[in-house]
Specification:
heterodimer; A: mainly alpha; 9 helices; B: mainly alpha; two-stranded antiparallel ribbon; 7 helices; 2 strands; elongated
Chain lengths: 267, 240
């Protein structure tokens, strides 16, 4: 394993945070055409989150990989709602809304840090990367929630449009669940002795893209024709990254042979 | 900014309490995980989070239904509605699972953790197959599971009730969605934390693991849920 060059966690975290925030901040620029950037930002966060899940779940959580995806979204959604809503109570300045996504990221990191610290020191899970990974997972969870929500609502204004276009019609449940799947599935599918980072990252990009397609369907309801664009680009990205994942699987396999059908009579 | 009055503090404590109820609920539910799915351990054959959250979310639906049709309902009534929904959900899961274990897999229900079932007094160890950790869902596990689900549902109902008091005056029509989603978030956090504590499987209240892990899991849950409570009430400040 060690002879394979892996992308460092720091670089992936930077990719997730910068890509995620950039996508989210670009989403309300020219409504509704730029809403698609929210989903693209969320895909960056999915890739980061899936890699963080990989690092912590490698130690064996005892409860299966899905549990960590669910706690990530649990923490993420609490932090996202807090971050996006809180600025309105501090100042009446309409520009305060720009602080929302960053605040959500910081809040998620704090919640993740607290839970990771307790898991490590009170529940005594004995996983050395627990605190760091829990922080990263929570932060990427918050970016995933805001990113996909922005792709559906067109922007990230909590009171103005997220409540009306994402919460009231129940799309948030799809964001929550499909987002959690996007994050936990890559490691859940790839885990094992021959697990490789590159293969997992391609799968993470493909699950992120298929989530984007689902959000496109939801966006048809809220944003009209722009949703179709999100849907189509999501499907195209999914095909590209799934093909890349497929190629990696073939490359990593010892050999790919056709075995034919099982013989009818025993020799 | 929301002023931190005494009632606010009480509400934060109530959210902390409800998170604790959910955390406690997970320990009561007989979770067998993958071994139980192969009838090699006592309990229901799926993960802690799936069972706790599955029953808890049904509890959330029943309690919110109660709240929607009786907005002046007392807190206990909303909690009871949640407890009923969750308990019915888990009891039917265990009944269906039990039918499959008994008539499909054909295993005798036995617990490997106790010699005699504390409720029926039946011997258990004679019926545990060699090399397994018990099979199926014995009476004590079933009762423990129903009690646990009721606790979880009551906890979910309690958070929902507290949050609705804050959000309804501010965003009348959308309050249910926002409070429901927030409750779901708290629910997942509080059902994953104890599942790390129990390490994936627990038989229920009679399991020796129960006494060992409950204190530290509950302590963690109280702190984390109160943190969530503070966050939830601050969100209300941003809704004006």
């Amino acid at each position: 394993m060690s002879d394979i060059k892996e992308i460092s966690p720091e670089n992936l975290a930077a990719f997730g945070i910068i890509g995620g925030l950039l996508g989210i901040y670009l989403s309300p620029l020219f409504p509704p055409y730029t809403s698609i950037f929210g989903a693209l930002g969320a895909i960056c966060a999915v890739i980061w989150g899936a890699e963080a899940v990989r690092r912590v779940a490698k130690y064996g959580l005892g409860t299966g990989v899905p549990s960590i995806g669910q706690i990530a979204m649990g923490m993420g959604i609490i932090a996202a709602m807090f971050g996006l809503a809180i600025m309105k109570s501090v100042t009446k300045d309409p520009r305060a809304i720009y602080a929302g996504p960053v605040l959500a990221l910081v809040t998620a990191s704090i919640i993740g840090f607290v839970i990771g610290w307790f898991a490590q020191n009170v529940i005594k899970m004995k996983i050395p990367v627990m605190v760091r990974c829990m922080t990263e997972i929570a932060a990427s969870g918050a970016l995933i929630i805001i990113g996909y929500s922005a792709a559906v609502a067109g922007n990230y204004d909590f009171m103005g449009s997220l409540i009306l276009k994402v919460f009231d019609n129940g799309v948030i449940l799809a964001v929550f669940w499909v987002g959690a799947m996007a994050m936990l599935h890559p490691f859940n599918a790839c885990l094992g002795p021959d697990e490789k980072q590159k293969r997992l990252l391609y799968l993470a990009a493909s699950t992120g893209a298929i989530t984007m397609a689902v959000m496109g369907i939801a966006a048809i309801m809220t944003l009209g024709p722009m949703g179709v664009v999100t849907l189509v680009i999501g499907v195209i990205l999914w095909l590209i990254f799934y093909k890349k994942f497929w190629d990696e699987v073939y490359k990593d396999a010892a050999s790919v042979v056709g075995t034919g059908l099982i013989p009818k009579t025993e020799a | 900014m929301v002023v931190f009055a005494t009632t606010t503090l009480i509400d934060i404590l109530l959210i902390g309490l409800s998170g604790t109820l959910i955390c406690l609920a997970v320990h009561f539910i007989p979770v067998g995980g993958a071994p139980a799915a192969m009838a090699q351990a006592t309990g229901i054959g799926t993960g802690t989070v799936e069972l706790a959250a599955g029953s808890g979310l049904v509890g959330l639906i029943t309690s919110s239904y109660m709240y929607a049709y009786e907005p002046k309902a007392a807190m206990l009534l909303v909690m009871a509605a949640g407890a009923m929904g969750a308990a019915i959900m888990l009891a039917s899961t265990m009944l269906a699972g039990g039918l499959i274990y008994a008539y499909g897999v054909a295993v005798p229900f036995a617990s490997a953790q106790v010699k005699k079932d504390p409720i029926t007094g039946e011997r258990q160890d004679n019926y545990v197959s060699k090399g397994t950790q018990g099979q199926g869902i014995p009476t004590i596990c079933f009762v423990s599971g129903v009690v646990g689900a009721a606790l979880g549902g009551a906890g979910g109902g309690l958070i929902y009730f507290v949050l609705m008091q804050y959000y309804t005056p501010l965003i009348a029509g959308s309050a249910a969605a926002v409070a429901g989603v927030f409750t779901m978030g708290v629910f997942y956090v509080n059902s994953v934390i104890p599942s790390y504590g129990v390490g994936g499987t627990i038989e229920g209240v009679h399991d020796p693991k129960f006494r060992r892990v409950v204190p530290k899991d509950v302590f963690t849950s109280v702190i984390v849920s109160m943190l969530c409570g503070v966050v939830a009430i601050l969100i209300a400040g941003g809704m004006v």
